[in-house]
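Shift notes (night). Ran Site-specific DNA-methyltransferase while the centrifuge was going.
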Amino acid sequence: MTERRNLKLELTWVGKDNRRPLLEPRILLPDPALSYHAAERRTDRDLFDNRLIFGDNLLALKALATDSTVRGKVKCIYIDPPYNTGSAFEHYDDGMEHSLWLGMMRERLELLRDLLSEDGSIWISIDDNEVHYLKVLCDEVFGRSNFVANIVWQKRTSPDMRSTIGAGHEHIIAFAKEYASFKIALNKLPRSPEQEAQFKNPDNDPRGPWVSSDYTAQGFRPNQMYKITTPGGAEYYPPEGVCWKNVEEVYLELVADGRIYFGQDKMSMPRRKTFLSESQGVNAWTWWTNKEVGHNQEAKKESNELFGASKAFATPKPERLIQRIIHLATKPGDLVLDSFAGSGTTGAVAHKMGRRWIMVELGEHAHTHIIPRLKKVIDGIDQGGISQAVGWQGGGGFQYFKLAPSLLKKDRWGQYVVNAQYNAEMLAEACCKIEGFTFDPSQNPQFYWMHGRSTERDFIYVTTNYLTYAQLVEISEEVGPERSLLILATAFDSAGETLENLTLKKIPLSLLRRCDWDHDDYSLNVANLPQSSSPEERAPEAKPVAAETRGRKKAVQVGPGLFTDVDGGEGA
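Came back to this:
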């Protein structure tokens, strides 16, 4: 077996070593008015915990990467990012737009990798403009040993006469999180009617139809170079340059089991029989024809039927293409993610196939296209695409979320303060994300200081109140010597810092250098970005603050009974 070596490769581009964004781990705010579900449960397999997230996809990925229910749980990621064509970057010269595209893709790919399960995989649609650079970038992010395939999809049915050499294909770059685990989990494709028709039963084998394959293998192995005598008396040695597929002991077992075929006259070279009844399907290969998985015209027709010709999406993917990817990479109930949702094809196909899904989209078509499309899927009205092939009749639902605004905003004097839009519960959840805790407020008023936990003995408490020394002593006694508590408060008596099981931090002061605050758009639409300034105009680079060392702790709710609202003014 060929060893898969994880060689260290790096792709260099202009600006690669510039300061990386310090992403704010935003919380997600549910909106029941834009969520949707079927009126009744139709089967035991109906899924209702799907998520449609509205907001910048880089910030959304950061939010998901700090969510323990998602991080390391995604089985399949499919993305169809902007292809970096010249028309999309008309405000920049070629070198600049290429570098910007690579930099922005790297930020997303690194977060996407963290979301994958150990046997998960990512599949990226791309065209010739960036495919080779993307491959090397993915080698760097995922590891070259985790490369699965560069799939060529035949997207057209005829040549593009407008081009010198018409582009008839696109690429799908596939990488695994861990190749060995992915290889075990990878599914086979069902056989087509044409493939099944190749199975015959000329010897009336009671196990049914079969196909035969060559019984030789490339190379020279001394223990696989024995003489074979057929039942009709013919003698064979392996032809030059090859050997038999198995050692003689295994060959004799196959003969005894009737799995070697010597032709009707029993005189032909041996061939191995594979029975249709035992077949698990066929392995996928890297050439996907438009007959098998659809083409641009098919995708356009699907979009027209869903949205009308005047609102059809410009560059959709056919449902059959996404179906094949999801089929190969997942099983029913697995989680699928698309952070460039577009018109929502990935979520629609995953829903029909019984997979859970998460989609992220910033554009207004999240409301004009994706939500109406998903409603049609859930109601069973959408009978286009793969619906009839999978017997889709509707069911399930999804939850709509939007990214919360930035936790810190500047006041009229240019000082960062807690955003007035945050109530105390939102503040506690946001601080849990930033500090690496799971938001899990206690429902027991006695443990009002338990807002989140990092371990079974390590908690966090977030409050906008001033904490006196007496209050801190009381909390310390409730926490006890076997637990620890991180307290984030707007102000407190500094004498409390001597209490061994408590760690005290002031907000927003302790948060200021943790993230790039009040930055809402990391869009890939680089035409909207400001032009690069001269070196003299650039501000000094901010240095990430090292994580503070402290005793490990644990916490749960907010105040006695319920959460206290954040002061609506300027904050501390």
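The longest strand covers residues 116-126. The chain has three domains: 33-189+284-403, 193-278, 408-528.
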